[in-house]
Design goal:
single chain; 464 residues; alpha+beta; Jelly Rolls; five-stranded mixed β-sheet; 16 strands; 27% helix; elongated
């Protein structure tokens, strides 16, 4: 069973409930054995196979499912007296099919068939097992890791005990969310077996689209760009919880481009369709940079925009989520990296050059202190330099005047060097002024060691 586990240290170190970090973005090794071969102590019960999906389970041993078969009088709603546990009924006839039907109606590919694996049924195999000691909880595993389409199987919990998953959501709600999250990983692998932050982020995004009132994915927002905007989510070292927290970028795109097919925003399907573009995929051990860059830039081009344009907007949306996102009043705004209070005695500030990770942002806020009288303005000299010209850069200012919404100005975009000097209001009516540096889309995957990061420079001074 240990060969099925991923991200043990990351999950435990973050202190997250296992139910909140539900997907793996790292495929297992080739020819991974099925749970029936590795952890079921006794022979599995007869699988329940409906409409191309087989649910495997055990009725004996530590992996046994709840035995109730009373049709809903207990914890699970199934079919009374049919000889199949109600939990298995619910999973095989309702929860997994709901996920499958939703993605099919939205125009996504079906998961790749697994041929003779999983009992030789060439169907989607879902295994129910005791995951109490499994870091990351529910997960999916590729049968044969590959850069192109590949099959896999998923393992979901055998009972969703409140002792493991908590009591905020019902057992059935957690089961339904995991069914969506994991099944969508199989759908993604029908496009590309190359794994990146996009896999987990997409799966967490799908939870909220299909079960919009449950909001389990909000728990990982602090680990993504909303909570850590200076951490680039293209990083090859990004932990899984951070990848899942990046679902908010996909929500941002969904709210910017709202056209739907089958009840799901079509923009994300376009992204996955572009993972098959020449140059978008990479070798199976790739960190996902080619996939991410090629897929996002290709899909957004269909919508008449660029990744850098969208990521720049994303950066200032996250500074004021209540103003921009539909559910933004419930989101914690991304915090500025620094807040500097200028005074008459200390009117200027020079920041040391600092690196900026790819697909990240860094905001500096300035407020008025004591000693200022009359009309003052804030002179800002900001720069971003990327020696290899491998990615796009942008600069944004925001000015908040009392009683008004902040005024946002995008100062410019460039691929090698971006320097701007501006003078902004800094009178007594100004609550604050912000400067945001944005590191956007890759123009090329550099041959030199990753990551390639631009350098940000900033000098500010209050002037008459």
């Amino acid at each position: 069973m240990r060969r099925l586990l991923v991200a043990v240290a990351t999950t435990l170190a973050l202190g997250l409930p296992l139910s909140l970090v539900a997907a793996t973005t790292s495929p297992a090794q080739a020819a991974e054995p099925r749970p029936t071969e590795t952890i079921y102590e006794a022979a599995e019960a007869a699988p329940v196979c409906l409409d191309g999906i087989c649910v495997h389970y055990a009725q004996d041993g530590t992996n046994d499912v709840p035995a109730e078969d009373d049709g809903g009088a207990g914890a699970w709603k199934g079919y009374a007296g049919n000889g199949i546990p109600d939990y298995v009924d619910l999973m095989s006839a309702v929860l997994v099919p709901k996920a499958a039907d939703t993605f099919a109606a939205a125009g996504y590919r079906s998961p790749v068939g697994d041929g003779v694996l999983g009992g030789g049924s060439d169907q989607v195999d879902i295994y129910l097992a005791d995951l109490d000691d499994v870091a990351g909880g529910a997960h999916c595993v590729q049968d044969e890791p590959a850069a192109g389409p590949t099959s896999g199987f998923c393992v979901l919990d055998n009972d969703y005990s409140p002792a493991e998953y908590g009591t905020r959501l019902s057992r059935a709600a957690n089961a339904g969310l995991d069914a969506v999250h994991q099944y969508f990983l199989l759908v993604q692998w029908a496009y590309s077996g190359t794994n990146s932050w996009l896999n987990s982020a997409s799966a967490a995004w799908a939870e909220d689209e299909i079960y919009p009132t449950l909001n389990r994915n909000r728990a990982v927002l602090p680990y993504g760009p909303m909570g850590s905007p200076r951490k680039g989510f293209a990083s090859e070292l990004a932990p899984r919880a951070r990848a899942e927290g990046t679902w908010i970028f996909l929500r941002f795109l969904s709210e910017r481009y709202r056209a739907e097919v089958g009840g799901l925003p079509v923009v994300l399907r376009h992204i996955w369709e572009h993972t098959t573009d020449p140059g978008a995929a990479g070798p199976v051990e790739d960190t996902g940079l080619r996939q991410m860059n090629g897929a996002l830039t290709g899909a957004l081009a269909e919508h008449g925009t660029t990744l850098t344009n969208e990521f720049t907007r994303f950066a200032f949306w996250n500074r004021d989520p209540a103003r921009f996102y539909r559910e933004g009043a419930t989101y914690q705004a991304a915090a500025p990296a620094t807040t500097t209070r200028l005074s008459r005695a200390s009117r200027s500030k020079v920041f040391s050059p600092a690196a900026l990770e790819t697909l990240s942002s860094k905001t500096h806020r300035f407020t008025r202190g004591s000693g200022f009288r009359g009309a003052w303005r804030l002179k800002i000299a900001a720069g971003l330099i990327n020696e290899l010209a491998t990615l796009d850069l942008s600069l944004v200012t925001r000015v908040k005047v009392k009683g008004r919404a902040p005024t946002v100005t995008i100062l410019g975009t460039a691929s090698h060097e971006l320097r701007r000097t501006v003078t902004l209001p800094f009178s007594a009516s100004v609550e604050w002024v912000e400067v945001t540096f944005v590191s956007g889309q890759l123009r090329a995957i550099p041959a030199t060691p990753w990551p390639q990061v631009p350098t940000a420079t900033l000098r500010v001074a209050a002037v008459r």
